[in-house]
Specification:
The chain is of the alpha+beta class and 199 residues long. It has two helices and twelve strands. The chain has one domain. A five-stranded mixed sheet has the order 2-12-11-4-7, with no helix packed on it. A three-stranded antiparallel sheet has the order 6-5-8, with no helix packed on it. The termini are far apart.
């Protein structure tokens, strides 16, 4: 009889433990610690976090205008079509309700008009949090690069009729969006070149 009671108690204890683990869900506590919504999770180590394909562009704006660089109100910021990050499991099935933490040196916008006010994230890298939908995709992220430097001016040397004009030096850099969920991390990079002004 004692053995039967002990076995029953053990089974009840195992059942309670299993239901507690199931209720909390894998990664729920970690998600909460990251500032994610209470009902979301972080990705598992076997999941796949996908970022947009890296991009490279060249612009040649020589004056503080939108010439060659598209955006308002930051005339020297390059904007992108909505960026989408996604999470799938190892079998390529979409994972929904997965929290993704995003960091950038660029600017977030509220919608596809890319107009002010820009969305302020937290911290020095403009941190925001998104959650995947039923297709495993984040919401549309309206994003622009960091404010780019204006083109270096033409320089001149010599005097009188022997003046030589030289194009300004190019400036290059990388703007980024880094996505993290659990131990997974991916970065979208925008490699930019601002061409120096030409004579």
């Amino acid at each position: 009889m004692k053995i039967m009671r002990r076995t029953t108690s053990t089974l009840v204890l195992i059942g309670l433990l299993a239901s507690t683990l199931l209720f909390n869900g894998c990664g729920r506590e970690e998600a909460r610690n990251e500032g994610c919504p209470a009902d979301s999770y972080v990705a598992n180590s076997t999941d796949i976090l996908t970022a947009p394909v890296d991009d490279t562009f060249v612009t040649s704006a020589c004056t503080p205008s939108t010439s060659g660089i598209s955006n308002y109100p930051y005339s020297n910021t390059y904007i992108y079509p909505p960026l989408i990050f996604s999470v799938t499991d190892a079998d390529n099935n979409p994972r929904n309700n997965v929290c993704i933490v995003l960091y950038t040196d660029g600017l977030w916008y509220a919608d596809n008009t890319y107009t002010p006010p820009a969305v302020s994230g937290s911290g020095s890298f403009n941190r925001i949090v998104v959650v995947t939908d039923d297709s495993g995709r984040s919401k549309s992220l309206y994003w622009g690069t960091e404010p780019l430097p204006f083109a270096n001016p033409v320089t001149s040397s010599g005097t009188g009729t022997s003046i030589t004009l030289t194009a300004g030096d190019d400036q290059t850099g990388v703007s980024f969006v880094t996505a993290e969920s659990g131990i997974l991390s991916q970065t979208f990079k925008s490699n930019w070149t601002v061409k120096g002004c030409q004579p």
